[in-house]
Amino acid sequence: MPTIKDVAKYANVSVATVSRVLNKKGYVSKEAEENVLKAIADLNYKPNSVARSLYHKTSKMIGLLIPDITNPFFPELARAVEDVALTYGYTVVICNTDEDIRKEAQYLEALQQKYIDGLILTTNQLSADNYENLGIPLVALDRQFSNRVPTVSSKNYEGARQATEYLIENGSEFIAHIRGPYHVKPADDRYQGFKNVVEEQGIAHIVVDCDFTMASAMEVAQGLFEKYPTIDAVFASSDIIAAGVLKVAKNSNKQIPEDLQIIGFDGIPLGEMLTPALTTVAQPIYKMGALSARLLIKQIEKQPLDVKNYEVKTTIQYRETTRSDA
Amino acid sequence: MPTIKDVAKYANVSVATVSRVLNKKGYVSKEAEENVLKAIADLNYKPNSVARSLYHKTSKMIGLLIPDITNPFFPELARAVEDVALTYGYTVVICNTDEDIRKEAQYLEALQQKYIDGLILTTNQLSADNYENLGIPLVALDRQFSNRVPTVSSKNYEGARQATEYLIENGSEFIAHIRGPYHVKPADDRYQGFKNVVEEQGIAHIVVDCDFTMASAMEVAQGLFEKYPTIDAVFASSDIIAAGVLKVAKNSNKQIPEDLQIIGFDGIPLGEMLTPALTTVAQPIYKMGALSARLLIKQIEKQPLDVKNYEVKTTIQYRETTRSDA
DNA sequence: CTGAAAGCGCTTACAG
DNA sequence: CTGAAAGCGCTTACAG
């Protein structure tokens, strides 16, 4: 690979001049510029980003820390981040942390040593300090973890309210909410939205805990239906949980949505592949990813942020696991 | 962040000595070593990988080029690659190419400028030359594209044979194969496996083309069932296609697996979330990803490859869309 | 065993 | 307008 020296020699100028035309900065005569441009083309020269990194202490790379790309919520998010990163000339490094504090620390160290320009975080294991001390731009995605870092999340509370109201409008009288893990902000907010609506309207309800995995959802749903056979609707805190509920319900020969309505949360592609297709509170996942990448790049490039926190709207995706009596 | 100079000053030695203890290479006195180690600890010094990259022309990063992380086959693959990369101290850059030659070229250029150490490719758009001229280690994953580059793939032909034989053993007498795109090696091999078995055994069959998307699968299946209502089994070239077939079949009130058996290919998590759960020819996806990462890192680290090409075995995952008369 | 020096490929004051 | 030089943070011959 040719270096800037080769170009300089070929164009009969100094490396400084080559650098100037490369960066379009500083004066350079028409003639010199033409020679340099020709040399670059002739030699098929590409500036070496490592050398640039060393000087600028910046890398044109951003890190995306997620719990696990294998969780169907994340691929679309990652895709969006990557798409906008590519547009702006950034490259993205994906880090699966498994919410494991040691892995997070290991990644952070590696990324820092590479002059990573910024981080998008969908994780809240390490305390906020660990990130803020890095001294690089951050964006929190899905979960807010410090009011000093810009955040992109969706209106979990409002979405949960709408879901619950919709089940009630459709005639359900005994609604179960299978909530996600405690201290995970979105799970808490969805729970709160559910609770407020059923209490305001005086609807019989039951809340049970669950992981965001299908296996635990099936176990929980099994127990729930045995104990409370008259439950006529489930609001699941995620689509994966809803998928588990659906499976158990069908195995127990419940008619869906006649005997039991089910509504999920997230809007992952899985939902529409199920039969019956899952009604869900859809988050604009791609948009959230894209928004967070833009927010991060703006900070990296020192542009002013007109909005610091985005709370995007959810929309109910009406499909086949709910009735529409309303 | 402290640099090697700070450490040298603190330890009262030269930077050369610090570098020697960092790299455990060259002679250094017990005493000097201790001082340096203490300095490193006291200052919390981490060597800068960018500077190292510049000197060594290597980056401790590997690139993973995939068509689209949003396709459910890839997250698990990516996860595996990332897991083993982390183990060996490498970081992975994910590139969604959409099988678009311009995007691939753009990524290749960016990665090359960063001294990427090697590439795992699951794509075959660019001609082999474009990659081989990069002069860095490569591994082809899922699809072979040159006999000079180590490849990890699964026994698509054999898997397809087994699937077809299984459907026949279970009594199916008119089998449809919905194949994937032409010139995609795995799709071709699966087709070939299917064709050979039905012809050997003299079973009525029909083959139709399809993309690896659920939408096109549903369209194809719809047409297929209308034209040939007596089809009693479908071998789909991927699980996504199978999911589409399943949906259409259920909408047409076919009893599964009584009226119609369905078997997919891939073994993605979606399969078991469906109801009935999908029988499929499962590839060891995680293993394939891990294998390819190891194969790549071995090349990067100039270790001999005892095996250059891996063809891993598939296994039928018996679930609910097939009978088991056999 | 150890340090001074050159070099990896760039960029940017500083002179001129 | 242009070039020589220093510097980004390392590593590694080369002397000693």
Span between termini of chain A: 68 Å
> Helix proportion of residues of chain A, in percent?
40-55%
Count of runs of 4 or more consecutive helical residues of chain A: 13
Q: Report the strand count of chain A.
A: 12
Mean pLDDT of chain A: 93
CATH class label of the largest domain in chain A: Alpha Beta
Rg over alpha carbons of chain A = 26 Å
- Which two chains have the most extensive interface, and how many residues on each? A-B, 52 and 52 residues
Could you tell me the CATH topology label of the largest domain in chain A.
Answer: Rossmann fold
Low-confidence stretches of chain A: none
Percent in strands of chain A: 15-25%
Strand arrangement across the biggest beta sheet of chain A: 2-1-3-4-5-11
Keywords (chains A, B): DNA-binding, Repressor, Transcription, Transcription regulation
Protein name (chains A, B): Substrate-binding domain-containing protein
GO molecular function (chains A, B): DNA-binding transcription factor activity; transcription cis-regulatory region binding
Organism (chains A, B): Gracilibacillus salitolerans
Account of the 3D structure:
Chains A, B: It comes from Gracilibacillus salitolerans. Chains A, B: InterPro entries: HTH_LacI, Lambda_DNA-bd_dom_sf, Peripla_BP/Lac1_sug-bd_dom, Peripla_BP_I. Chains A, B: This is Substrate-binding domain-containing protein. 2 copies of one chain form a homodimer. With 326 residues, chain A is an alpha/beta fold. The first copy, chain A, is 46% helix and 17% strand. Chain A has 3 domains: 4-47, lambda repressor-like DNA-binding domains (434 Repressor (Amino-terminal Domain)); 57-154 and 286-312, Response regulator (Rossmann fold, 3-Layer(aba) Sandwich); 156-283, 3-Layer(aba) Sandwich (Rossmann fold). Chain A has helices at residues 4-11, 15-23, 30-43, 49-56, 74-87, 101-113, 128-132, 156-169, 185-201, 214-227, 239-251, 270-273, 285-300; strands spanning 61-66, 91-96, 118-121, 138-141, 151-154, 174-179, 204-209, 233-236, 261-266, 279-282, 309-312, 315-317. In chain A, strand 9, helix 12 (270-273) and strand 10 form a beta-alpha-beta unit. Chain A is elongated. The first copy, chain A, binds a DNA duplex (16 and 16 nucleotides) through residues 3-5, 13-17, 19-20, 22-23, 25-29, 32, 47-57.
